[in-house]
Amino acid sequence: MFNGLPSRIELYLKIDSSVKIFTFKAKLVKLWSAVLHCTPVWLLAMLVLPACAASASVPPVTSRALPQVSQCLILSLSGRVYPQIAETFSILGCQVRYCATPQVVSHSLGAHDCCILPGSEAVRLTRAQVSEMTRLIKSGLPLITDSYSVISMALGISYVKQRVTLSTYHWARRPIEPIRLADASTFTRFFAPPSGKVLAYGKDANDAVIIAGELGAGKFIYSGLPLDTGTTPLYVSLPYLLHDVVDFCGLPPMFTAAAPDYYVDWGFHYTETPETIVAQLADAAVTGVYFSAWYDSTDYKTFARRFIAAAHQRGIAVYCWCEFPMVGESFWRQHPEWREITAAGTEAHLDWRFLMALEDPDCLRAVLDLLSEKISAFDWDGVNMAELYYESPEPAVTSPGKFTPMHPSFRRAYQTRFGIDPLKILSADSPVSWRKRPDLYKQLLTYRTSVLNGIMASVLQHLLELRRQHPDLALVVSQMDTCLDPTMGERLGIDLPRLCALRKQCPFLLSLEDPYTTWHLGPHRFATLGRLFRAHLSAMEPFVITFNIVDRWQGAPLPRPSGLELFTQLRQALLYSDSVYLYAWNTVSAEDRAMLPQIMAADTICTTEANTLRYTAKRPLLLHMPLEGRLPSLDGIFWPCWRDDVVLLPVGTHELTTIDVPPVLPSLHIEACSGAIEHARYVTAGIQLSYTSRTRCYLRLSGVPKRLRIDNHERVSIPADAAGGTTIICPSGSHTIEVQ
């Protein structure tokens, strides 16, 4: 542990607000060196200080109780299981347990647990059990229940002899978006107690659907809609249930992780200040952003520079987000000769994208030169080459006005190789039409895919050359998935196996987005997508999945994925992928953004026994716990990565305790790290930390270091910022740093 420890060990002990330096000379034999190398700082302090400073008061090394993972206790007197409820609350990271009686609930309770009482179980409660449940609630137990029962009346809920039938209702926090029920639901009309709060309603606030209230020290949520939905997922009828449980019942997250990376399009934010957006991103625990790069106005350039600078100060990496063959509206206006042409003979301004004919060698060279200028003009952390495919997701023979490419350069190249004008293959009355010669149509689609593969290879080769000038530039390629809907391959010209093979030429992280043709399959499609694609990769090859949070057709509970539906998507995607990206920052609600870091950490396995917390994590975590002037110890060694009441935890299986702070430790500690911390420890007069990061790593320190070494090379530290700390920009890859 003490690599390079000198023969004189200087220990600093603060006594009566003064610092005394005790210098001890040791006979450093091999055995003593070995002891020094493996002994934790706190133990060394205990052994050395009392022997040489008997009059000094050394704080005792003691541990205190650590937080417990929240439990969701499902009261099931019938012995039934409720898989939809269990899955819903496991998304929060809760440990789900079934209890047969209120007495079992009482014996199982922790500080941040809640009880779920489905209406079908509530009607089974005996009078004595109702009294026991009422006592537990008054003592502080949060309860979530539904339907008319004796226990609901004990909560102060009143009923009238009137049945309410609902097909839509409104969540009070977002009333403008009605929640559509797949099937109409009927329940007895009810009213909240005087101190209650309406969380969701039908026609108006007097038409309660979900309410919240208090009984003694406890809180409850009551739903007119059933919690027991059989085989139907809860997100279909109660998409915002978890928001209400967390907010009203006060279930704080024990673990959180970095939020998904977001796409940020300047076209939706140009009226805002970049610093405000960055502050919102940081508050949402975001560490990566894909910022639109197809604008070139002066306002955009000014905004982009301020946005990137502010993001870096908050530890957020910013990627140059490209949408080739969409280059930009200015490039489209300047080069009409390179505008892509559809099979209908029209210019390919499709949806919001102005498509350029990258199959034209002159056009491709000009676009790559423009890309070089864009990369050099801003302090990017990486490039995201997104959605480089041909149009359209509809068949060429039925939608020629959307089918590309049919630029003259493509037609000439095809005719030179095959002796046929490709337009004639798509003409119904042609002697070589797709109706008469389906083999020629297949040949056209195959050639089109090979052309796109060649374009992608050229773009990646160019990016590889740019990385020689910008060695920390991370590369991401975002492409449409063709596993769930294989027809997308030939319609868009995508060859995923060939694309993956290009990673040998130019390493990049692959992000898959699901096509709109699969959105009706529900959130669990992302587990299927991940499993199918993972089969094409080695176990260690990373990939991510991108969600499009955009409006969709009728039939879903909400206009766009939100709440429990979005959270279920995320958990399903993370079963096989390494992370999730979200399009876009402006389409994800503030309520969802706030909860996503907790959902990202929900697969953490954790047990707390006595004063030790054992956990296994797939991604870096933040543990939220009051330190109360103490210091975390990880695997028996003082851990220097913490801030306020948050401890930064590494991936893997580890044990955590907290110990009184000994007076021999440096004042610096690590407050945040955008990369993955692998090892960290206090060393003589400083901290040593090893990390891995795809982009440059942004390291936040509690103060200004006097010295900074990266891989044993001296670096000049960055001055303190306005907050009094220091953000250090470290290189991408795997490195070891020392700060003093």
Provide structural commentary.
By secondary structure, the chain is an alpha/beta fold. It has four domains: 1-58, no CATH class; 71-252, 3-Layer(aba) Sandwich (Rossmann fold), CATH 3.40.50.880; 257-338 and 351-389 and 472-600, TIM Barrel (Alpha-Beta Barrel), CATH 3.20.20.80; 604-740, no CATH class. Helix content is 28%, strand content 29%. It contains 20 helices and 38 strands. A nine-stranded mixed beta sheet has the order 4-3-5-6-11-10-9-7-8, sandwiched between helices. An eight-stranded parallel beta barrel has the order 13-14-15-18-19-20-21-22. The two termini are 16 Å apart. The model is unreliable at 1-63 (pLDDT under 50).
Give a brief rundown of this model.
With 740 residues, this protein is α/β, with parallel strands linked by helices.
Whole-number mean pLDDT = 89
Question: Count of DSSP helices?
Answer: 20
Q: How would you name the CATH homologous superfamily of the largest domain?
A: Glycosidases
CATH fold-level assignment of the largest domain: TIM Barrel
Strand order of the largest sheet: 4-3-5-6-11-10-9-7-8
DSSP strand count:
38
- Radius of gyration from the alpha-carbon trace, in angstroms: 30 Å
Task: Please give the domain count.
Answer: 4
SS-derived structural category: alpha/beta
Q: Helicity level, as a percent range?
A: 25-40%
- Seen as an oligomer or otherwise, the chain set is single chain
What form results from the Cα inertia axes? globular
| Terminal residue distance | 16 Å
| Low-confidence regions | 1-63
CATH class categorisation of the largest domain:
Alpha Beta
Which strand-content bin applies to the residues? 25-35%
CATH hierarchy: architecture of the largest domain: Alpha-Beta Barrel
The major sheet is characterized as: 9 strands, mixed
